[in-house]
Amino acid sequence: MRSTTRLALGSVVVAAVVLGLKFLAYLLTGSVALYSDALESIINVAAAVAALIALRVAARPADANHPYGHTKAEYFSAVAEGVLIVLAAVAILLEAGPALLSPRPVDAPYPGLLVNLGASLLNGVWASVLLRGGHRHRSPALLADGRHVLSDVVTSVGVLVGVILAGLTGWAVLDPLLAVLVALNVLWSGWSLMRESVGGLMDAGADPATTARLRQLMSEHAEGALEIHDVRTRHAGRVTFVEFHLVVPGQMTVEEAHHICDRLEDAIRSELEGASVTIHVEPQEKAKHHGVLVL
Predict the structure, then answer these.
(1) Pair 134, 263 in one domain
(2) Where are the alpha helices (DSSP H) in the chain?
(3) 122-143: per-residue pLDDT in tens?
(4) For residue 173, what is the DSSP state?
(5) CB-based contacts of 93, cutoff 8 Å, min separation 6
(6) What domain range includes position 238?
(7) Measured distance CA(258)–CA(269) in Å, rounded
């Protein structure tokens, strides 16, 4: 089993445990804010399952119908997770609205708060594991899941503080008011996830820092060529596709041009693990006199 799939499977288990703990905290307190926190944990379970399925699909090798592989499946998982998060925010607002009009005291909050705190600590540890794994494996699905879990931790901390204040001050309205704030934070988290993931589905190019580094590598490792132009990049899950035109002297042999291409591919893949590099070799009369200057 791939390490990314193991992490996704671990997310399902952790999300299920956290969901149980948070609903127990809600049952112990009757807090609308804790209920909203538990509702978001249902989304965590669904999102973890979606990420697991997407990673299993993304791991499939290229085939006749998908010659570029299946890595974009991870973006579908991230988009679905964003949609689920938005739906969770709507559900929280529907629950918090009536409670704002008729706030009720929070019952015996402290045992429930301790349970919720334990769930939040577990989530915090797992969020750091997911984010490290997502960056290491360049996995959009794991990064999306990690950011979602981390936002859940921030939300839970806010809920804990608010419910404690409601219990200490007797201001019952703080509980549903905090639930509304939780919903707005969840809504922003879901929108951010969808926006980033749609960029991947739309073949957004590499970020400016990565693009600048690629152009530097091309300049340093294309000795013998004359020019590099029409550089294009796009992401598909953990794979970055890099395409460009390499202009060489007209009298250069195919073998010599091939050696330059090999150097360039090795340099790019050392910077971007698993990159897919496509180079179109052209004679010098095709030069555009702009692009990457070969050192």
Answers:
(1) no
(2) 3-29, 32-58, 73-101, 109-137, 140-169, 174-201, 208-221, 254-271
(3) 989 999 999 998 888 878 778 8
(4) T
(5) 180, 183
(6) 208-293
(7) 16
